[in-house]
Every structure is written in C-alpha cells, then in structure tokens.
From TrEMBL:
This is Zinc finger protein 451. It holds the Pfam family Zf-C2H2_ZNF451_1st. Residues 410-420 have a biased composition (Basic and acidic residues). It comes from Nothobranchius kuhntae. GO terms for molecular function: DNA-binding transcription factor activity, RNA polymerase II-specific; zinc ion binding. Residues 407-434 are annotated as: Disordered. One of its GO terms (cellular component) is nucleus.
Amino acid sequence: MSSPTQGHDSEAEEVEFVSEGTLRPVLDCIDLLSDSDEEGCSSRAVTLEDSVTRNKARVMSTLDRLAHKVAQEKKERADKCKAFKEKQIMQKAHGQRELAVSSPNGRNQEAKHCVDMWLKMPGLKPGGIGADWGRRQSAADLSRNASARHTCPVINCGRVFDNISLLGGHLKRFDHSPCDPSIHLSGSPSELFACVACGRHFQTKEEWRKHVQSKVNSANASGHSLDQNYQQIVCFACPACFLLFNLRDECLQHMSAKNHFRESLAMDETRGAVQPVPVPKLVKNRLIALCKESTFTVRCSLCLKVLISHQAAQAHFNVQCRHGCAVAKADTTIVEVMKQLLARGQCSLCSKVFLSQAEIQSHKESTQHNVDVNPSMAEALLQFSRISEIQQSTAVAREKRLLQGLETSLQRRTDDRGESDGSPAKRQRLASGL
C-alpha cells in the first residue's frame, strides 16, 4: 500500500499545461494595488510639487527684491553724482560771474574764496561711492595741503593759517571781524628807535642817544633836546588799508599784491613813492584796542540772514542757500579807526593833538599858540604817540599829587583830633562830667 506522499508526487508529475494556440506577448498587467493606495500616492506627489513651487517662488521673490534694491542704489548714486556735477558747474559759473563784475581793487580774490568755500564743503565727490568717501584723502594730498596756506572762506575776513587745524579753530571761534589790523602779525616784532624831532630811525637805543647828543651840541639843534624820549617802532602799516606787518618787506609784498600804492588818509606833503608807514608801539596797541570795540556781523550773500555761529552757517548753506556764501561786515573800518590816531597837528605848549584842520585853526584863534602841522602819516603817528605819552605821564603825576594831598589832609585831621583830645579844656570838661 503506497503512502499519500507518493500519490501526490505522481499526480504532480502527471500535470501538463498545453496551449491551445500560438504564444502572444503580454499586453496588459493586473493592478494589484487597491484604489485607496492609488489616491494616497497621488496626493503625496501633489504636495511635494506644491512645496517645490512655493520655495521656487520665494527664492525668485528674494532675488527680485535684491535686484531691485541694487538697481535703486545704483540709480541713487548716479543721481548724486549728477547733482554734484551740476552743483560744481553752478558754483564755477557763480565764481566766474563774480570775477567778471569785480573791480581791480581786490574783489576777484573774494570771488575765488567763494568758489573755494563751496567746493570744499563735505559731500559726494566725483568717483566716490558714499557720502563720506570724499572726506578721505591720500597721503600725497595731505602732504600737499600741509605745505599750502589756508585762507578763511568768509569774505572780508582775510585771515590766513598755516594748517587746517588752525583754520578749524578759527572757524569754530567765529571771529571774522574785518576790522582787525593784526591778522598778518606773525613772528617777532620790529624794534627801531625813532627820533621825535627829525623822525630818523636807529637800530639801537645807543645810536639814538648819540644822535640826539650830537644835534644838541651842534650849532643848529633843529628841535632836538636832551629831555626828549625816543619812540619805539614795532611794526609797519599799509598806507591804503592800514593792516599791520612786523617787517617792512612783508608790508611791501602786501602792497604789491593788492596794488595798495596809495594813501587813504592823505596829508599835506606830496610825495612821489608811497612807502609803508612806521607805527609806534603806543599807536599799535591803541589801534588794535579800538578795532576790537567795533562790532561785526556775518550774513548770507543771497538772503542776507545774520549767521551767529559756525554751526548755524553750515546748516544754513547746506539746507537753504546752497549757492550762497558768508560775508563779514564791520560797523567801522580800520581806516576810520586810524583817523582817530592820525594827528594833523599838535601844540607843544598845551600838549594837545588835533585831528583836523578845523581843530588846528580853532586852537590858534583861541590861544594864539603856534601849532606844528605834520606833513606825513609817519610823523603824524610819531607825534600822536609822543603827545599821548606826555598826557599819560601828566595824568599819573596829577593822580600822585592828588593822593599825596589827600594823605596830607588826612594826616592833618588826625593830628588835630589828637591834639584836641589831649587839650586841658577837654580834660576839664571830661572830669566835670564824671
């Protein structure tokens, strides 16, 4: 009897598949996935596609914004460069107009100052990439600027400085008075000794003393006397504008540069060549002190607004009048102040100076004194200084006598009071009262 396992094996071997026709290729496949599985797969594909699309759109938006920002900044830089070039052209045109209408008395320098002032204002420079790029300079530019002198940009100020730091300090102080004769005083002052009788200058005091001694001992003293004192010459003044210079050669250079070979305060003497005026020490100090009392204002050249500080001026020209310039004007000029020190004549008996011909004539008629008339500005300043020193010494002596008189009177009263306190009659009255 055979086992069941053997029966199954025999049946398996007997099975045979027989095709009824020719073999054909498989054209269709059976989808083993269910409908639910197909829907889940398609939804995941759609979600992934949407995420990729959104990320791509976000990236494109960021790139568009960056590109727009870069284009906008580029346009702004181009506009700034264009505005700067237009501003520079207008400033040069303004300066050229000033030069065209200026007279030959030095106004052309003021127009140059105006142009230089605005070309040096902080702002975008050609070739720069930012607002502060133009402020940076190369080492060559700095060395070139260090060797050049710097003039104050305020018109009529006229002060010149050796470096930018000094100019910056001057601008912050806002001291732009045109009525200042000392703006060119630098270095050591001159030291000459002038004879008040003849006006000659000597290098040393000993030379002056020998000169006076020889004149006194001669047959014709010509007004020289041993009780006279010298006048120390410390600087020289331009005869046209009366700016002061320590050296005579510096004054001559100024007169040549400004064409100041004329006299603003002409005297009676007619001279061929105009020369620097020697200034005594007392006249120099008095002139500077009187000029400091003169007030001044700084105004805008376009709207005439008064500017009270350097910060206010910067804000005004940066915002309001961008094509204007600062102009300083004083209530009085140096020449007008010098008129108060220019002695037309003097009376040696009264120790008085006279500033006009009318004063001289009035003094002659009232006192019948002889008044000496000064033929030149140099002699006029010399005699003003001499008479002023005499007046000062007389006033000091008068004060001393007054103080001595007061002390003497006070001492007398003290002595009289002491004597009255010690008198017998007063002692008797005091005793009876007790």
